[in-house]
Structures are given as structure tokens and as C-alpha cells.
Design the sequence.
């Protein structure tokens, strides 16, 4: 393999972190508390994304509900994640620190749903709600608002989507995903309106993160303002989201994929690959992507592994194909579950990628970048040629000297 030299760089991003999350939550939850009555049973919906300060935000919602004299309980609202099992979904929440012990409210996990009806007109998609939530006196969803990895529209990933794919559990995810990415874009809002019409939804806590993945804002939206708030925060998210500082690279090395980093394991908005027929890749162009490991929090669910061209054996050995296929088949985007070429070691995986870029690569010409995952891209490594191309970008700061890329005796890449 060519002897690559890489340097660490820092990419400036917009930082707007809230200084006091509990204070902000206490402020916004006053509106929610006015909707509550003593003795009400309130379902608080928590999802499966790696969201900064998520457990703290959920706990603040629990506290506010208790202060109003109501009785909170927490339900997983995450479609087919966690292997599409009640136990798996409770385990996902526990990984984020959301348990009965930490929250002071029971976590009630079930895959049972109630059918609320169906969409008017064609197609007549059934509308579902988690049975535990339907049995409550009110529901509050808690989710981050950001760009979706499958489609773009007025409502992408956020509190509106959680009303559909999350709160409707595996049954709703199957019913909507069969219509593809455009179906998600078009039918999620319609289904969510039907869910709100059930009268069970009190509102949602919408979380906005800045370019450094820190909590930038928190907004409570009662049911009649959820669409308005969701869209407004999505537009703010578009302006805040961090991006890689280049438009083209020969090889992108991703140290870890995982559901805690993105619903697709790797954020398609970062790597520039959607791999859904009819959807356009917006860049950057990464000729080859190498993925080396999967997070423990994913419990072997490697949805999105097919977005890579080459993976290491250590990643391949950790894949739990049953839960991966459950998630992939539910999504309908089968290519994202394909098993890439497997290199026996990290070194071999990178060697294969460099060999198969469609053009001769040398140590001097190689455009190679390395990121820890697709959620944390403020610090990364770049090769000499790539650094030469981005050095005039005022957002880029070189913070280490160039050094040869290092592997241990097992051929594993040195820790990030």
C-alpha cells in the first residue's frame, strides 16, 4: 500500500449551544403544564437517535408532567429499530440513559398498536398508534429536528415524523416505507395530521442542534403548532449543519458506523450517498468509502453498511444480520443492507479502496480523509493533496503535523 501521510484539521462550525438546558426546559414546559390535569396519564415518546443531552431533556419533560400533578411514563417511539422488539427498543433507550431509575418514570415498551383509521383518498394507508400511548390521556413526543437521510421536503426528521414512523411503531414504518423515499416525504405529514386528529397528542418538544452537535434550542409545540415549529426548526437546522470541507475525495475512511450517529448508520448528508433510486446525491463525491467498525450502541444493527464500498473484518464480525435485515427490509431501501467487500484488516480494507478508485493513486496525489463517524466531523484527518486543496478555506485549521498513517501489529488503524 502507498505510504499515506495525514494531518489532523479542525473545521469551524456554527456554535450556538444553550447555556442552561434545565432553565430553558422549565420555561417552555409551562405551556405544556397548562394542558395537563392532576391524575392524567401522559406518555412521553423517546426515540432511537444519538441526540445531545437527550436523557436530560426527557427527564425535564417527566419533571414538568409531575409538577402538574399528572403521571408520566415513557415509551420507545422508533419504528423498527431495536430489532423491532419491545425488549430491543427498551434496551436502546437504556443505552441513552433513559430508564425508570434515571428518569423517575416507568419505561413501557410494546410493539402493539391501535389502528386509528386510514388516509383519505389514494393510497389508503392505514394509520397506527402505539397502544400504550393510545391508552394514555395525552402524548408528548420529544425529538431532534434535522435533515433526513432519505429525502428532503418541508418536514424531514423531527417531531412530525415521530408522530408517524416512531409512534406508529413497526406496523406504521412498514406501511409507509413501502412507498419509497417520495412516499415518506409525501405521506408522513398526512399520517401525522391523522394522528393529531385522534385527540391524543398534547404536543412535542423539538430539539435543535448546532454545527457541533450541541443543543442550540428547545421549543415546545402544542398539537396545533407542531407542523409550524417542525418546519421552522428544519430551516434553521439546514443553516447550522456541519459539512465536510471538500467536494471530492478518493477515499473517505469512517472509523465507526452506528444507529447512534445516524438512522442510516452513516449520515447520507455527510457522505454524499443516498443510494435510493430517484433520489439525487448532493455531494461530496467520495469515490470509495471504507467503514472500519460499528458502535456498541447499535447492538449489531448495521443498517447503512451498504453505503460503504469496503469494510474491515472486525466490523463484519460484529454485524447481527437478523436485526439489520429487519430494519433494512422495513425501510425498503435494500441496497443499504448489502454486504460490502471485506478486508481481513483495516490496512487491507484501505488498500482495496485505494486500488479501486478508478484512477492511479500515489502518495502525492491521494485525496483521503478520515472521520470518527458522521455525527462528529468537526475534527478529521486529511492527506497532503486534500489539505493543499482546502488550505485557503477560512473554516479549516491544521492542528497537527503530517505523519504516516499507522497500523498496529494486527493491521488495525491507530485510534482516532
Sequence:
Amino acid at each position: 500500500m502507498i505510504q499515506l501521510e495525514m494531518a489532523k484539521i479542525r473545521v469551524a462550525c456554527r456554535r450556538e449551544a444553550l447555556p442552561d438546558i434545565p432553565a430553558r426546559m422549565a420555561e417552555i414546559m409551562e405551556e405544556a403544564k397548562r394542558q395537563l390535569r392532576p391524575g392524567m396519564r401522559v406518555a412521553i415518546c423517546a426515540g432511537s437517535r444519538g441526540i445531545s443531552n437527550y436523557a436530560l431533556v426527557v427527564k425535564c419533560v417527566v419533571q414538568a408532567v409531575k409538577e402538574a400533578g399528572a403521571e408520566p411514563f415513557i415509551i420507545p417511539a422508533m419504528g423498527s429499530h431495536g430489532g423491532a422488539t419491545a425488549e430491543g427498543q427498551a434496551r436502546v433507550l437504556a443505552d441513552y440513559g433513559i430508564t425508570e431509575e434515571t428518569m423517575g418514570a416507568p419505561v413501557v415498551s410494546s410493539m402493539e398498536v391501535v389502528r386509528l383509521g386510514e388516509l383519505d383518498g389514494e393510497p389508503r394507508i392505514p394509520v397506527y398508534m402505539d397502544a400504550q400511548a393510545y391508552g394514555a390521556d395525552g402524548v408528548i413526543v420529544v425529538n431532534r429536528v434535522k435533515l433526513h437521510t432519505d429525502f428532503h421536503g418541508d418536514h424531514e426528521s423531527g417531531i412530525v415524523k415521530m408522530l408517524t414512523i416512531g409512534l406508529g411503531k413497526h406496523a406504521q414504518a412498514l406501511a409507509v416505507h413501502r412507498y419509497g423515499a417520495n412516499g415518506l416525504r409525501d405521506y408522513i405529514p398526512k399520517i401525522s395530521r391523522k394522528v393529531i386528529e385522534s385527540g391524543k397528542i398534547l404536543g412535542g418538544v423539538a430539539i435543535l442542534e448546532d454545527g457541533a452537535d450541541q443543543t442550540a434550542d428547545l421549543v415546545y409545540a402544542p398539537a396545533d403548532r407542531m407542523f409550524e415549529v417542525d418546519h421552522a426548526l428544519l430551516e434553521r437546522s439546514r443553516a447550522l449543519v456541519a459539512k465536510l470541507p471538500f467536494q471530492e475525495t478518493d477515499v473517505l475512511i469512517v472509523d465507526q458506523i452506528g444507529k447512534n450517529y445516524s438512522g442510516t448508520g452513516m449520515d447520507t448528508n455527510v457522505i454524499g450517498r443516498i443510494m435510493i433510486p430517484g433520489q439525487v446525491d448532493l455531494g461530496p463525491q467520495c469515490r470509495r468509502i471504507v467503514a472500519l467498525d460499528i458502535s456498541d450502541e447499535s447492538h449489531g444493527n448495521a443498517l447503512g453498511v451498504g453505503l460503504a464500498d469496503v469494510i474491515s473484518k472486525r466490523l463484519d464480525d460484529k454485524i447481527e444480520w437478523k436485526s439489520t435485515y429487519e430494519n433494512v427490509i422495513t425501510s425498503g431501501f435494500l441496497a443499504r443492507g448489502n454486504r460490502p467487500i471485506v478486508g481481513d484488516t483495516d490496512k487491507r480494507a484501505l488498500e482495496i479502496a485505494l486500488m479501486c478508485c478508478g484512477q492511479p493513486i500515489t502518495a502525492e496525489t491521494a485525496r483521503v480523509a478520515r472521520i470518527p463517524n458522521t455525527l462528529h466531523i468537526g475534527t478529521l484527518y486529511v492527506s497532503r493533496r486534500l489539505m493543499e486543496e482546502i488550505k485557503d478555506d477560512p473554516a479549516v485549521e491544521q492542528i497537527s503535523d503530517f505523519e504516516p498513517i499507522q497500523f498496529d501489529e494486527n493491521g488495525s488503524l491507530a485510534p482516532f
The mean pLDDT is 94. The two ends are 20 Å apart (CA to CA).
